[in-house]
Amino acid sequence: MYPLCPRLTELARVFLKLGTIGFGGPAAHIAMLEAEIVTRRQWISQAQFLDLIGLTNLIPGPSSTELAIYIGYLRAGWWGLIVAGVCFIVPAMAIVWGMAIVYERINDLPQAIAMFAGIKPVVVVLTIQAMWKLRISAIKNLPTGIAGVVTIALIGVFDVNTLIVLLVAGFGVMVWQNWRNWGGGLSVVWLPKLDLPILAIVPAIASQPSWVDVFTIFLKIGATIYGGGYVLLAFLQSELVERTQWLTSTQLLDAIAIGQVTPGPLFTTATFIGYLLAGHAGALAATIGIFLPSFIFVVIVTFWAPKLRQSVWFRSWLDGVNAGAWGAIAVVAYRLGVVTLVDWLSISIAAIGALLIWRWRVDPLWPILVGATIGLLGQLARSHH
């Protein structure tokens, strides 16, 4: 057995490295964690690792980050939980924070505008790809199919709040699949974080948000989001573009693009948005707000895991939430497509991006760089003429 301090130092070193080189999204992060933690260092077995993946998929938030946090807990207790999580998040946060500062200074330059205009069609393609890939795991049967369609209608046509729709989708599928067993096992479904008072932590809409407003918004998102980075896009569209109007669709697409080209969790997009909304305090508040629930949920799941695994009600609720999340991504993909694919250049970039992503299956970083290059070349050609 190692003493505690060397274990914490080792955890910090490992997760700082993984957070710095972790390009490619959650699937790539999980693969790197498996290679480093299971194969190379043999801290846990393959079976334990798979079990942790299943557990982190039961709770809201970024699953790869929560996996890192949980591994830290197993390796060095509560201090390990904190060290692993913070070290996995901080490299991406620092990079995104720096890019936000640069973005604020150059986003009025024609070249920068052209580059981001070239990136946006690729982000739309990535969103459509996420919707397409998730359809199999999200739409499993008739109840989840109906939940997905109803979600599209409620969000896309009636502009109902995304969080409310996801909760309703989960409840509807849960009741549909288990109504014959009503009264048997319902008590183990609800975790404290899912109680309805979470809906109350919505700040009054201010024309210029403070860091407290930013923290509150991202705390709510971090506490309730299932389905990964592209569901985050749906939540941000609903909360920050449509409800509060603190961001434009253009700024949101730019933020997601920055998240795609940087390592670490896509949820560090929150750092970028927090900086745009409330400066340095906003960047820190948004980052803490969106990731804090993940630490709390990992603590909770260490105690609740057996009940969660056994609860048919909870699994059904999660099926409904996932179907709703799929519908929310579909709505966002459509809305972003409408405002982005407006001329032959943007449509051409989207087509090239789709070919690279779907035909040759390249990492999203490369289509984004191609889009930025085409956008810049297009601007240079226009200025030359």
Q: What letter string, H or E per element, gives the SSE order?
A: HHHHHHHHHHHHHH
Distance between the termini: 70 Å
Instruction: Give the helix proportion (percent range).
Output: over 70%
- The total number of structural domains is 2
Instruction: State the major sheet.
Output: none
Number of helices: 14
Shape: globular
What is the average of the pLDDT values? Answer: 87
From the alpha-carbon coordinates, what is the Rg to the nearest angstrom?
Answer: 21 Å
Low-confidence sequence ranges? 184-203
Indicate the structural class.
mainly alpha
Pfam family, one: Chromate_transp
GO molecular function: chromate transmembrane transporter activity
InterPro entries: Chr_Tranpt_l_chain (IPR014047), Chromate_transpt (IPR003370)
Protein name: Chromate transporter, chromate ion transporter family
